[in-house]
Amino acid sequence: MLQQNAAAIASGVYDRRIEVRGHDEISELAASFNSMAEAVQRQIDAVTATSEERKLLLGALTHELKTPMTSIIGYSEALLKTKLTPTQKTEAATYINRECGRLERLTQKMMRLISLSGGEAVQLIPSPASALFAEVELTLKDAAARQHATVSFADSGARYAMDLDLMASVLINLADNACSAGATQIAVAAERNRLTVSDNGCGIPADVLSRVTQPFFRADKARSRGQGHAGLGLALVSRIAELHGARLGIDSEVGKGTTVQFVFPEQDV
Question: Cα(210)–Cα(107) distance, rounded to whole angstroms?
Fold first, then answer.
């Protein structure tokens, strides 16, 4: 039996155990074998979890490039093909430069997370919500306009301990989801320790709401596939919430829209 179970583990079957009977040397050997098998199983589970997280982050990295790259291409085509005033040329070039810089920083952070088995604590710097909004306003409004939607911002003077690049990713993902859901109005609001994104899109059915943060899950597979969505946006938002020690809350009603709240820990910042 011991030989058979050892062979099973060697072939990749890690859940095999030996029934321990008595208190002789064979029983002690069987108990030791079981302890070893359990240790191997824990290590395999840990490696599997790490592999899944890396798969998520790699997929998310590709997903993250889509919205800003579309805007960058649009602005670069305007520079190449449209007669612009000097002021417009400067604005377009400034936007392209800023977005390229943000994407470079975000890519480096995502790759750093991918390279570590358990993730990495990010550097959280107390910053005003207005700084976060300034990072994403042009990108969000430009992306929304292409989908015949509008984006509004409301800030009560809130401050959060956050990584600006990762939180910009949160807002871009949530706005992208809203546009994919057919929203025509997207509202971003910062008040006290809550950052809220609300839309008037098609909403999420109650029976799948608890699953929307799972990697690669898509509430409407046909629409998501047609628009090139892999179901990674909310999974990444959930991961970023964890890195900030924040709570992610999602309320939705079919036919009325969705509200996502990013609730930071209560603290003086």
Answer: 29
Do residues 166 and 122 make contact, with C-beta atoms less than 8 angstroms apart? yes
- Does domain 121-269 fall under CATH 3.30.565.10? My reply is yes
What is d(CA 144, CA 161) in angstroms, rounded to the nearest whole number? 27
Q: Give the tens place of pLDDT for each residue, 121-157.
A: 678 999 999 999 999 998 899 889 989 999 999 999 9
Question: Which bin fits 185, alpha (ψ -120 to 50), beta or left (φ > 0)?
Answer: beta
List the domain boundaries for the chain.
1-120, 121-269
Alpha-carbon torsion, ordered 46, 49, 53, 55, to 10 deg: 110
CB neighbour burial string for 237-263, b if at least 16 within 10 angstroms, e if fewer: bbbbbebbebebebebeeeebbbbbbb
Q: Which residues pair with 132 in a beta bridge?
A: none
Question: What confidence tens digit (pLDDT) does each residue in 53-99 have?
Answer: 666 666 666 666 777 778 888 888 888 888 889 999 898 888 888 88
C-alpha span between 29 and 76 (Å, rounded): 70
Q: How distant is the alpha carbon of residue 238 from its chain centre?
A: 6
Report the predicted TM-score, pTM, of the whole model to 2 decimal places. Answer: 0.63
